[in-house]
Every structure is written in C-alpha cells, then in structure tokens.
Design brief:
Blueprint lengths: L1 H36 L12 H11 L2 E9 L2 E8 L3 E8 L5 E8 L8 H5 L4 H11 L3 E9 L6 E9 L2 E8 L5 E8 L5
Antiparallel strand pairs: 1-2, 1-5, 2-3, 3-4, 5-6, 6-7, 7-8
Length: 188
C-alpha cells in the first residue's frame, strides 16, 4: 500500500508539472506549506481610541474639538469648525470612518466659542494630561466654560478597570486635577 501512495503522489506531481510547469508546482507546494503554518485566528483589530477619534473628526471637519464621548461602537465628536459652524460627527470605533450627523452655525450669537477656540490647551492636550495624571482609557472629554467664576477647563473621564475617574484639566495651564471616581455600573 505504501508503494501505491508514492505512485499516486508522483502521478499528481507529474500532472502539475505537465499542465502548469515548475512554477505551478512550486506555488502549489508553497500554498500547502502556508496553509499548514498559518494561524487559525484572524488578526485582532484595535478599536479607535479617543485620540484617534478626535484626529479622524478634525481631518474631516477642521476646527477645534468641543466634546468627545464614546457610546458603544461609536464616538460622538462635537467640533467648532474654522468657519464658525458647529458639527456633530460620529466616528466608528472599528473602521475610523467619520459621518456628519449635523452641521450648523453657532446659534447663540454671543461668541461663546471664542474661549474654546482661543484656549491654549486643546481637547487632545487635555486628554494627554488627564491620562498622565490618572492612567486608563479616555471615555469622554468636554469643554466646561463656567461663567459663574470664570474658570475654563476640560472635564475628562478616564476608565480604568471598572472605575471611572473624572479629571479636570485647566484650559490655560494644562494642570490636571483628579476630581472624583465612581464605579461603572454598565461595564462600558
């Protein structure tokens, strides 16, 4: 029986050589070797993080990030455009594709976005400062312009394990202050 097997293999090799030549035989052997050595699992794709979502949103709609929040499989990003218009964008966490949900002019008319547009510390810098102050993953960042006492800061939520920590980042100095922490009930 062992001789029959060798004869079948030799016959198959001859057919490959006759019909496709030596290149086909080499390709067939390489394909068989690759199939045997290839991993069974598909490569793991990393989700788009907060910084990636901000970069993708600003590439599509240049301006300044006003807020950014992860909601399941998407990031919601609000941008004040260079043209003064406000845009609500959605960034897919898997593909990084950006979709415009809404874009309109600044309706309040009081120039309320001047402080945001002129802030030394951007949302991206605030996220870096917050993560440096408290390690974890950024879940949201939001501009806070407190008119009562004139303070301007970024409120950044950092998730580490099952805890969410709020970090305030001063919009002028970039100083990050941990302001509170609580458990994450929904596991996101």
């Amino acid at each position: 029986m062992h001789r029959k097997h060798k004869a079948c293999v030799a016959t198959a090799a001859a057919v490959v050589l006759i019909t496709g030549g030596p290149a086909a035989a080499a390709a067939a052997a390489h394909t068989a070797d690759t199939a045997r050595s290839a991993p069974a699992a598909a490569p793991v794709r990393a989700d788009v993080d907060a910084a990636g979502a901000a970069a993708a949103a600003l590439k599509k709609y240049p301006g300044v990030v006003e807020s950014l929040d992860r909601d399941g499989a998407v990031w919601h990003v609000d941008v004040i455009g260079k043209n003064g218009k406000h845009a609500e964008l959605t960034v897919d966490t898997r593909s990084g594709k950006v979709f415009t949900e809404n874009a309109d002019s600044d309706d309040d008319g009081d120039g309320g976005n001047k402080a945001l547009v002129g802030a030394k510390v951007t949302a991206q810098k605030a996220m870096k400062a917050a993560v440096a102050a408290h390690s974890g993953q950024v879940r949201s960042v939001e501009w806070d312009d407190d008119d009562d006492n004139g303070s301007r800061y970024w409120n950044v939520e950092i998730q580490s394990g099952n805890k969410t920590t709020n970090v305030h980042v001063d919009a002028t100095s970039g100083k990050a202050t941990v302001s509170g922490s609580d458990s994450d009930d929904d596991g996101n």
